[in-house]
Amino acid sequence: MATDSVVHQLAIRLGNGLRDERLMLATAESCTGGRVATAMTDISGSSGWFERGFVTYSNQAKSEMIGVPAELIDRHGAVSEQVARAMAEGALRNSRAQVSLAITGVAGPGGGTETKPVGMVSFGWTNRLHTKVETLVFKGDRDRIRVQAAAHALRGVLLLLDEHLLFFGGGGH
């Protein structure tokens, strides 16, 4: 089970990887409310690899701050892979980062539906060349869901960095 300690350790690993590759990260968070950005900036020296974080909790914020089309939200819902993709790509477009992550979900305890239950979280990760999306359903209370989502989002960027190294033969310089 993911804990804040796990999130912190993943943030340290990711920070080291970003620093080594001279890459900057941007985040677009909804249901986690900035938890990933907080974990990243809790680390001394994070200004060298954390570019900015967007907390786009409302649908309007998603559209205004990072350019997620309102029609996309209307069509698929805020908790969807389509919106997670648009959030990740919008965070990159509206920053100077080279890598981004996005998190949008239903942390609960209310707000869930039959098709989008409490614990459902959609993720997006992009490095300008490749965008990946995924949806998972986490179990637990609001805090546990948010911690698990933050940890999964960080793991996703670590995977993207690993693939970046393999795809480009190392050195994102």
What does this structure look like?
With 173 residues, the chain is of the alpha/beta class. It has six helices and five strands, in the order αβαβαααβββα. It has helices at residues 4-21, 35-41, 59-66, 70-76, 81-93, 142-168, and strands at residues 25-29, 50-55, 99-105, 120-126, 131-137. Strand 1 (25-29), helix 2 (35-41) and strand 2 (50-55) form a beta-alpha-beta unit. The radius of gyration is 15 Å and the shape is globular.
Keywords:
173 residues; disordered C terminus; 5-stranded mixed sheet; alpha/beta; 6 helices; single chain
Strand order of the largest sheet: 2-1-3-4-5
- Tell me, briefly, the overall form: globular
Structural class by helix and strand composition: alpha/beta
Number of strands: 5
Considering DSSP H and I runs of 4 or more, what fraction of the residues is helical? Answer: 40-55%
> Biggest sheet: strands, sense, closure?
5 strands, mixed
Q: Runs with pLDDT <50, length 5+?
A: 166-173
The sequence of SSEs as H and E is HEHEHHHEEEH
How much strand content do the residues show? Answer: 15-25%
Number of helices: 6
Mean pLDDT: 93
Estimated radius of gyration = 15 Å
